[in-house]
Design brief:
alpha/beta, Purple Acid Phosphatase, chain A, domain 2, 6-stranded mixed β-sheet, 5-stranded mixed β-sheet, 13 strands
């Protein structure tokens, strides 16, 4: 299957999205997380011809955090929204989570250590494709300030279960791919650290 990977579009919908079987967005679909921004994103995301379209929220997407706090489960026609939850497509098992280590006063923040580990403990050990908004520690997470902002607990979990693919975003300047052990790691951020269009969607065959 051909899988198209994007992340961190932040209301910018001027990208050419390649054809494929599955389109995945790894969060930060909006800038301020308002319902109006989310509505525009949903319409844009639904417009693509990919048979399966999966997305998670990111730290800018307050609309989805508010829904989770109110124990609401957003559903959209022809889309799969994951929030510490999974799905299965053609025998491949997906899991998605918007959680990341506390990052200023944004959405889906969790303290490093035991608090955030609770979310990673939910990831099934047989996950094939893991979608998180934030990266694991020291994997495509280096900021322009020279600091690694990824999550150590997430890294431990990913190394333990070794999914085929782990896609994320959040750290725009970390865009790219790397393979460690049996896992292909992809930071699919489409904007750079100045929130300018700078990168292209990444396509893989799995």
């Amino acid at each position: 299957m051909k899988i198209v990977l994007i992340s961190d579009t932040h209301t910018n919908h001027n990208f050419r999205i390649p054809e494929g079987d599955i389109l995945i967005h790894a969060g930060d679909v909006s800038s301020r997380g308002t319902k109006a921004e989310i509505d525009v994103f949903i319409k844009w995301f639904q417009s693509h011809p990919h048979k399966h379209k999966i997305f998670i929220a990111g730290n800018h997407d307050f609309y989805f955090e508010d829904a989770a706090k109110n124990k609401e489960k957003p559903e959209f026609e022809n889309l799969i929204y994951l929030n510490d939850s999974g799905c299965e497509i053609n025998g491949l098992k997906f899991w998605g989570s918007p959680i990341q280590p506390t990052f200023f006063d944004w959405a889906f923040n969790r303290e490093r250590g035991a608090e955030i580990k609770k979310h990673w403990d939910l990831i099934p050990t047989d996950t094939d494709i893991l979608i998180t908004h934030g990266p694991p520690y020291k994997i495509l997470d280096l900021t322009t300030k020279g600091t690694y902002s990824g999550c150590k607990e997430l890294k431990k979990k990913v190394f333990a279960i070794q999914p085929k693919l782990h896609v994320f975003g959040h750290i725009h300047e970390g865009y790219g791919t790397t393979t460690i052990n049996k896992t292909l790691f992809i930071n699919a951020s489409l904007l750079n650290e100045k929130y300018q269009s700078a990168h292209i969607p990444i396509v893989i065959d799995l």
